[in-house]
UniProtKB/TrEMBL annotation:
Main localization (coarse): membrane
Lineage top rank: taxon: Eukaryota
Protein name per its UniProtKB record: Palmitoyltransferase
Region (Disordered): 285-356
Residue stretches of biased makeup (Acidic residues): 321-332
Enzyme superclass (EC): transferase
GO molecular function: protein-cysteine S-palmitoyltransferase activity
PANTHER family, sorted: PALMITOYLTRANSFERASE, ZINC FINGER DHHC DOMAIN CONTAINING PROTEIN
Protein source organism: Guillardia theta (strain CCMP2712) (Cryptophyte)
Length: 356
């Protein structure tokens, strides 16, 4: 266990305490899968040649998983400027590629990130793997990627063959004849117990296989796009922030359709003006006055009971001038529509007096 100049804890690799809960869980699950496969699944195989072939392949994959996991956890992915305790700028690194870390109190590479769990800056930081209890950077990323690929093949073989054996156990005809009469190893064991044990081994391997497949495809995508896991998380966070800001901006903007509904149309303006005129007429009528209209201008009503006595209207100068202007326009228009003869009248010859 290493300590900084301030006396704080700094993790060197994944085998240092405190161990992570997921790291301990991975050790337990991996041990259960290995023991269940060698002690339960493989002894139930009837074909000896197939048993030997599957055992060899499974053992090689198991060895590769253990070695790669140990190497990935044991490597220290710290930025070498911290590892070498260089407070000054290294000679072989351009000055523009360095940034100052306030936690480590030294200059580090611009692609480095300080991990709070390990309390150190990681060169080309990808992510902190809790299953390995170590950070993944440029130093241990290649063995990490090989580890997840080999572990996927390992769990795939385990889940497939466990399902095959479980299917045989489910078949009552072959199970009673073979497992209770031929194998001395399982004599005295219950048929239901074997079914449950093999099924649990299959489910554990299948879940791990699906998760590892997703992880392998994800890192293939990251390598294709040239991003790290940390860059991907930041891009997703920025995308969600932009979408949130865009939704808030859209909620503040009034649509054009609503704005157009707020603008009064010409027809609405005309109707409003006529409504004002009717209101003025109703107000004058309430005061005892009546404006001359087409309805009461003529004497179309008969009888004294049906005829209303209209008082002289009190018109404002504005209303009177508007009515006079309208009347003059009507008379001028009517005069312009008359024939020319009616306008001038018939020309009569003037009497001519002849001189005597």
């Amino acid at each position: 266990m290493a300590k900084t100049d301030d006396g704080e804890f700094q993790r060197v690799n994944g085998f240092e305490r405190p161990f992570d809960t997921l790291q301990l869980l991975s050790w337990i699950m991996f041990s259960f899968m290995v023991f269940s496969f060698f002690l339960v699944v493989m002894p139930l195989e009837e074909d000896k040649s197939r048993l030997i072939a599957i055992t060899i392949v499974y053992a090689l994959l198991l060895l590769a998983v253990v070695l790669l996991a140990a190497r990935t956890s044991a490597l220290n992915p710290v930025d070498r400027t911290i590892d070498e305790k260089l407070q000054a700028t290294p000679r072989d690194v351009p000055t523009g590629d360095l940034l100052y870390c306030s936690y480590c109190k030294c200059k580090v590479h611009k692609r480095s990130k300080h991990c709070r769990l390990c309390n150190k800056c990681i060169r080309n930081f990808d992510h902190h793997c809790k299953w390995l209890n170590n950070c993944v950077g440029s130093v241990n990323y290649p063995p990490f990627f090989m580890l997840i690929c080999i572990t996927f093949l390992f769990t795939l073989l385990h889940s497939v063959w466990s399902f095959v054996i479980w299917k045989r156990l489910w078949d009552e005809r072959s199970s009673k004849a073979y497992f209770y009469e031929s194998l001395q190893y399982f004599r005295g064991s219950s048929h239901t117990g074997l079914l449950v044990l093999v099924f649990i081994s299959f489910v554990a391997a299948a879940i791990a296989c699906i998760l590892l497949l997703q992880l392998v495809l994800f890192h293939i995508y990251l390598q294709y796009t040239g991003m790290s896991t940390y860059d991907y998380i930041l891009s997703r966070r920025d995308k969600k922030t932009r979408q949130k800001n865009l939704r808030e901006a859209k909620n503040k903007i009034v649509p054009v359709s609503e704005k157009s509904n707020q603008i009064p149309k010409i027809q609405e303006v005309e109707e409003t003006s006529w409504d004002l005129a009717e209101m003025q007429a109703a107000e004058n009528q309430a005061k005892g006055y009546e404006l001359p209209t087409e309805r009461n201008r003529g004497s179309g009503l008969e009888g004294e009971g049906n005829r209303r006595q209209s008082l002289p209207a009190k018109l404002s100068p504005t209303v009177a001038s508007e009515e006079e202007t309208a009347r003059d326009e009507e008379e001028s228009q009517a005069a312009s529509n008359l024939p020319k003869e009616k306008k001038l009248g018939k020309l009569r010859p003037l009497p001519v007096k002849l001189a005597n």
